């Protein structure tokens, strides 16, 4: 620590890392101190020169004599003094909460903006930009933000806020951090000086929030490159307010993390990586895939998304791979048939952008683990995973052997489990969300005498998807079950047909009959792929595809007994009618 003089206060300045490296300046918010950044600073110091300071009135820094000492001009003078002490021509500024609020002002202020190479903001918009949103935003969105900002009005009251901080507020703050964000108090946060810091910091709100001493800029544009990190669980700042900031920054990157207000405490690895990627890119390094797709501007819906699809060699898998690629995604086409996967990938590469082919047996846990590691090592963490690979065994229950059941469940259920488990773990570790699509079937909720193993596996996939959706929502990972009805694919030709007693099963005849039935249905896999893309875009939990899919799903909710009666009345001819997807 060293001291920096700034007018009527003395600021406590802290530095770590190599002074010759690019400098990252971390500014804390209210009612924190520089110690809120401990974990992030520890992760950045090996690559950057990390600078922190306690703002006036917080931590080890001294406080001004009165609330007028918290005006923006004084805050700007503090930052200028810190920059002079650091001695760098430009720094990468990172602000949280009030550190972010004042960062927006200072990044556009002459004399300081030239010394800020980049600005990473989270947990607080600029006051001028927020005021424009309050004046011109949609009424419902403005009302929502006002509800989140109730405390700002409360802090204007005399005496009561000071009394609250000296009595109940420290316990409420600690409890809120524990319960809503999973943050355990540690030495330094909340600081030992919390009560004094909070009382002093009320001057930030009382002096600046409703200040009338200077007219607002008509166009509060910030020319500095800005990385906006949106904590999707932040109870103080609404998504609509953050989205409104786009108009003020010509060069903006908008990233999201499934976290609360103090994301640097709950997810320090993710925040440190985001800061490092952005600062490194501004310094000249190529952007990561995640940073490329965060750039605000005109983009195709899935541009720079990495999509992994199993069973991509034919049918729904192939159509889905082509659909994502046509909307800008980079696609990993995997299939047990490598030649089929290559045909899909080659066709995509010729028409849209590069696609990659891999052979994988989804039923083999070890092979799936190697596949997931290869994808991460060679291409990065996928943004979307479509677990599509599946097989069908058609025949009565007593004609199914144990091997028939084992093989069906290994591919249709365990293959989905492997894909979900491995890639969801990668998404959760990255901390920027993602989406998993599991291809189930009409058979998931419509019982069948002639597809017992297949229907059981698809019902399990649907329930697995519901469970995962509940479990992974907190990490920003969406999960969708797609339930198609009859689709014109080649699944009937690839199915296994069992039964017939001592008489041999005429597999070719059954397959031909099923093929004709699916062809007459005339529902191409491309239409299923369109439903998949829409489901991911709108984060839908379940999509029943085509008329019979929707009718079957509705009957399963309204009258499951009717479906059971239909299943009892159906005969062996159902084989050629219920094979519904590839």
Give a description of the structure.
An eight-stranded mixed β-sheet has the order 1-2-4-3-5-6-7-8, with helices on both faces. The chain contains 24 helices and 17 strands. The chain has 582 residues and is an alpha/beta fold. 47% of the residues lie in helices and 15% in strands.
> Strand order across the biggest sheet?
1-2-4-3-5-6-7-8
Q: What's the average pLDDT?
A: 92
Oligomer: single chain
Strand proportion: 15-25%
Uncertain spans: 572-582
Helix/strand class: alpha/beta
For the record, give the distance between the C-alpha atoms at the N and C termini, rounded to a whole number: 64 Å
Q: Tally the beta strands.
A: 17
Helicity, as a percent range: 40-55%
Shape: elongated
Biggest sheet: strands, sense, closure?
8 strands, mixed
| Radius of gyration, CA atoms, in whole angstroms | 29 Å
- How many H/I helical runs? 24
